[in-house]
Amino acid sequence: MTSGLPAEFIERLGRIVASDDLPLVLESFAITKPIFARLNPLRAAPDETFAELEQAGFSPRRVAGHETALRFEPSCRDDLMRSAAVNEGRLYPQSLSSQCAAPLLDPVGAEWVLDLAAAPGGKTLHLAALMNNEGRLSAVEPIRPRMYRLAENLKRGGATHVKTYLMDGRAVERKTPDRFDRVLLDAPCSSESRMRIGDEESLRYWSPRKIGEQSRKQLGLLSAALRACRPGGRVLYSTCSLAPEENERIVDQAIRRFDGEIEILPFTIPSVIQRAGLTAWEGEAFMPELANTCRILPSSEVDAFFLALLQRHS
Ligand code: SAM
């Protein structure tokens, strides 16, 4: 370990992140960050929950450009987790980076939306809120205890139109091709953004081998997501990893299988530091359009996140 992080991880970061960004990124693994949470309009009017939190002494702050996001000082973590607003589903603790995914996919009420890797359900709930419990929302999770947590969170959050499926997401390719208007794939990943200096548990399982294992699964899942999406529909792919093998390379390899049918759409996200996705890694060139994908840089405020918005043409 160097500076409390695995030496190989730091060496890789030096090749992934621009040298100007590296100090900020390295520092972000040592910092206790603020807590972010999402006001849940399915349970209560956001302004009422905001007032309730103020009255309870939490000093919530709005986040520019994120309508339902709130920021809290880290010192109130335990009290916030025990609060009535969290326990009764009016507030869902969720990193700001994670809160960027559902609005980018931009579902509208009458659509049929698939969340392909759903537990514990933070983004499923966010999609349900944006859809106002209208249309159809299907949520897939293959691990039974995580499925129970997903079901509990959906119930607590008042998401009434979600149908859950205990299955491997890769099976949707065969079972429901060309079906969904919108597909979210918040893929299982090496979770590099959760690593914290001093938190041995968060560092223990990191290895290049794990990145390789995850990337094989991610490619299968993204191919399935693209097949399950109807022509004309959209897929959002996200991970909380910084590894190009789990991000740009997966998107590059998956869309090559679709022979010109998939476009990578550009977008910007307010209130975070973002960088264009890489167009090359370790001597391998990706499609130039990979620059339309987005890396949220980890900082003293937020965790790292990767997002790619994909349009399947008719
Ligand atoms: N979107 C979730 C949220 O916001 O709460 C977090 C999803 S987490 C990053 C990835 C999830 O994918 C985990 O719950 C994991 O169990 C699940 N998963 C693992 N393998 C899978 C597979 N083959 N198909 C679908 N989901 C899978």
Brief summary of the model shown:
The chain has helices at residues 7-16, 22-28, 46-55, 77-81, 84-87, 96-99, 101-105, 122-130, 144-156, 172-175, 200-204, 208-228, 248-256; strands spanning 35-39, 61-63, 66-72, 91-93, 112-115, 136-141, 162-166, 180-186, 229-239, 262-265, 274-276, 280-281, 284-285, 294-296, 305-312. It is of the alpha/beta class and 314 residues long.
- Gap between N and C termini: 50 Å
| CATH superfamily placement of the largest domain | Vaccinia Virus protein VP39
Strand-pairing-aware structural class = alpha/beta
Count structural domains. Answer: 2
User: What does the overall shape look like?
Assistant: globular
Question: Any ligands, ions or cofactors bound here, and which?
Answer: S-adenosylmethionine
Strand content: 15-25%
Work out the helix count.
13
Biggest β-sheet description: 9 strands, mixed
The tally of strands reads 15
Q: In the CATH classification, which architecture of the largest domain applies?
A: 3-Layer(aba) Sandwich
Helix content: 25-40%
Estimated radius of gyration: 19 Å
Order of helices and strands: HHEHEEHHEHHEHEHEHEHHEHEEEEEE
- CATH T-level topology of the largest domain: Rossmann fold
Instruction: Give start-end ranges of low-pLDDT stretches.
Output: none
Task: Give the integer mean of the pLDDT values.
Answer: 96
CATH class of the largest domain: Alpha Beta
Topology:
Layout: H1 7-16, H2 22-28, E1 35-39, H3 46-55, E2 61-63, E3 66-72, H4 77-81, H5 84-87, E4 91-93, H6 96-99, H7 101-105, E5 112-115, H8 122-130, E6 136-141, H9 144-156, E7 162-166, H10 172-175, E8 180-186, H11 200-204, H12 208-228, E9 229-239, H13 248-256, E10 262-265, E11 274-276, E12 280-281, E13 284-285, E14 294-296, E15 305-312
Parallel strand pairs: 5-6, 5-8, 6-7, 8-9
Antiparallel strand pairs: 1-3, 1-4, 2-3, 9-15, 10-15, 11-14, 12-13, 14-15
Helix pairs in contact: 12-13
